[in-house]
Amino acid sequence: MGVPTMAKEATRLRLHVRGAVQGVGFRPYVHGLASRYSLAGFVANDPHGVVIEIEGERTSDFVAALPREKPPLARIDQISVQEIGSLAADEFHIRASEQGRVSTRIVADAATCPQCLEELFDPNSRFYLYPFINCTHCGPRYTIAERLPYDRPFTAMKSFAMCAACAAEYADPGSRRFHAEAIACPQCGPRLNHGVADIAAAIAEGKIVAIKGLGGYQLLCDARNHEAVQRLRQRKQRDQKPFAVMVAAADAVGEIAEAAGSEIALLESAARPIVLLRSRNSLAPALAPGLSRIGVMLPVAPLHHLVLHALRSIHPRADGANGAVVATSANPGGEPLVIANDEAARRLAGIADLIVTHDRDIFTRADDSVVSVVAGRTQFIRRARGYVPEPIRLARPVPPVLAVGGALKSTITVTRGDEAFVSQHIGDLDTAEGIRFFEETVRHLVSTLDVEPAVVAHDLHPNMASTRFAEASGCRLVPIQHHHAHAASVMAEHGLEGPVLALVLDGYGYGSDGGNWGGELLLCEGARFQRIGQLAPLKMPGGDRAAREPWRMAAAMLQSLRRGAEIPQRFAAQPQAERLVALLDQPDVPTTTSAGRLFDAAAGLLGITEVQSYEGEAAMKLEARVRRAAVFDRGWAIEGGVLSMHPLFERLAFDVMDPTQGAELFHGTFAAACVDWIGRAARSTGVANIVLSGGCFLNAVLSEQVQHGCMAAGLNPLLPRQVPPNDGGLSLGQAWIAALKINESDSLEGSL
Angle at Cα 408 formed by Cα 406 and Cα 411, nearest 5°? Predict the structure, then answer.
């Protein structure tokens, strides 16, 4: 972003600043800057960002310093400057916000800043041990905002009248809490219903505690207590799916996981995501069974700091180890995150031994974000609290679009100008509660951004809840093929319109021919795509049930290798194994080109996972076995654009090998096959930009090996970095394609 060069004689200026400049201490920052340069005038929030008028001899110094010294949470997209007439003012002040059609935005929630943390544990501070301390550099934003502009009357703090001390800081330009909309203290702010000592004692005793966090309730228990973790699993009905862990500070991470510098930086960032790290296996075995990585996070809110401090000081461990607590979403049965107090009492009573609530509302639920570092870069697994609603910058302005995503790991996207706002992770739309959360998110994001969508983009699948919502909207509809949307999500964030080659590897997507797609090589340009390759079809006995039971896909692979007679013996523990032999010979068994089902088949054949208790379990446990990065042989065949991995599975099925050896052979060979497949297509099309997307690219081994292989071949591989490669990024791709379709349609009409 460039700053206009101002003539020295310009002394009366109006500036408009656009970006994330509300609720981040920007107005007090401007006030201090104006005071430094002895300027008169004012600053105010307006519907587009912040408006500043200044008069004095050093206005050019002010303009130069404005973007250079901005507050840590501020994001400046544009500064416009114009000369105006005299302000007739002799001082600088902050004005009330201007109303109107909104085109600014709210920043994401931010973890407790170092200054507030110091005050939290300072006995001389009036915020000593206060679990809701915050300032303009930290604290809740998006989750407590009802609408824009971000002023206290439009937040969850509107019901808390400031005491004299808070009001004085709020009005003091020299204070870090000058116009901090969420300011509060023990005298006037929100209150907990249980003391921190009681919370820590319950955790130390092996109990399960539900606490109200920034974006919703969380469930906590001692991560070193195997019985407590098992009890949490039983109550939450979560058999195997891993739990995240919270520790007090970065210096405690090394006790439980291996972390590189880039991973520590992510842990300590204001977003405070859960970061996947290689486990040292020092916590309860029930925490992440069968996996090599665990999710680790640092405290987000002051209450987290207080609880972990109390565990260390009041209830120290006999072995001297730092406290580590499970910190998982309070969403029983896969339903949306609990945010309301009465809802917590009703839905969490059978899970938590202690429910800790407070009287500050959460307006927008936002789960913890989950990230990992792949090939030295951040990769999202779940994008939510701490990152939403930060927009993704598009290559150019586009018409307003609402994109409603898919059915799993759902998000929505709303475009405004050259920005795409991807919602927080919504989750699966297979329950009434999940659909209500989805509809609530649509209403909130569209309203907050003050956008009227020109079209609604949706998945091609006719029976998704999101598709039905789109059809009922009354808007112009743009159906988008699932894997095309995956490819376009990467194109959107990298500013590409094509041509690109896209390798999309995932579990399932409704194909243009109505088939079960999931391993596709696409040629994309503008709003169009061509399917130029696919994985060899494999039978999927039992339909969707085969996605939950990897042994079925392993059996299908055996049958395709002409060894179906061995199925009953290999899968003797499965009651349906005998019947499956006959079923696989039927002509009407559905087939799939899914890469995800290949991972399942490998896990089933190697005896790693025969039946899954959560989505992706087989693939994750298969990846966890890999120790060496690139082990492969020529275990594939490519003919007519179709990639067959049957030669690899011949070895996996019939050579004697342990699961680790088999997992390494599968990953290395499949990655090498993908690079060969891409390379052939690149040579025949002349296209060097390679887009890699789909849920299988959450697999770090596959992602790194395909990326490195493409680079070694002189190609330019591009992975999603601002949204997940799984269905969490689908809505961004839908929005980009729909916007391009509108532009193409408008151009066509204009040429007639």
Answer: 60
Three-class SS of residue 613? coil
Give the whole-angstrom CA distance, residue 353 versus residue 200: 13
CA distance 214 to 119: 20
Please say if the pLDDT value at position 365 is more than 70.
yes
For helices 700-712 and 659-685, the axis angle rounded to 10 degrees is: 40
User: What are the pLDDT digits (tens) for 24-64?
Assistant: 888 889 998 999 999 999 998 887 789 999 998 899 999 99
Residues 465, 405: contact at Cβ < 8 Å? no
Domains of the chain and CATH, by start: 12-94 (3.30.70.100), 196-370 (3.90.870.10), 393-480+727-752 (3.30.420.360), 534-718 (3.30.420.40)
Angle of helix 595-605 relative to helix 659-685, nearest 10 degrees, comes to 160
CB atoms within 10 A of CB 588: 5
H helix or E strand, kind and range, residue 418: strand 413-422
CA-wise closest residue to 722 among 467, 498, 413: 413
Q: What is the pLDDT of residue 104?
A: 61
- Which residue in this structure is represented by tokens 């709020």? 170
Q: How confident is the model at residue 752 (pLDDT cuts 50, 70, 90)?
A: very low
Q: Find residue 528's DSSP bridge partners.
A: 525
Smallest Cα–Cα separation from 185: which of 129, 261, 256?
129
Distance CA(44)–CA(42), nearest Å, equals 7
Residue with structure tokens 């994985």?
Answer: 535
SS3 258: strand
What does each C-alpha distance from 343 to 221, 337, 377, 703 come to in angstroms? Answer: 21, 10, 39, 40
| Residue 610 Rama label (left phi>0; alpha psi -120 to 50; beta) | alpha
Neighbours of 446 (CB within 10 A): 18
d(CA 116, CA 110): 12
pLDDT of 192 > 90? The answer is: yes
Cβ atoms of 60 and 10 within 8 Å: the answer is yes
Give the three-class secondary structure for 202: helix
Burial class (CB in 10 A: 0-12, 13-18, 19+), 728: buried
Predicted confidence (pLDDT) per residue in 247-304, tens digit: 999 999 999 999 999 999 999 999 999 999 999 999 999 999 999 999 999 999 999 9
Q: Tell me the H-state helices in 505-573.
A: 544-548, 550-560, 567-570
Rounded Cα–Cα distance for residues 313 and 674 (Å): 53
Q: Which two tokens stand for residue 311?
A: 């565990």
| 126 φ, ψ (degrees, to nearest 5) | -75, -5
Q: Tens of pLDDT along 413-442?
A: 999 999 999 999 999 999 999 999 999 999
Residue with tokens 């949490």: 232
> Residue 328: helix, strand or coil by DSSP?
strand
Q: How far apart are CA 246 and CA 487, in angstroms?
A: 34
What is the maximum span of the chain, computed from C-alpha positions, in angstroms? 93
* Helix, strand or coil, per DSSP, at residue 587: coil
Q: Please, are residues 744 and 534 in contact by the beta-carbon 8 Å criterion?
A: no
Measured distance between the N- and C-terminal CA atoms of the chain, rounded to whole angstroms: 38
| Cis amide bond preceding 149, omega within 30 | yes
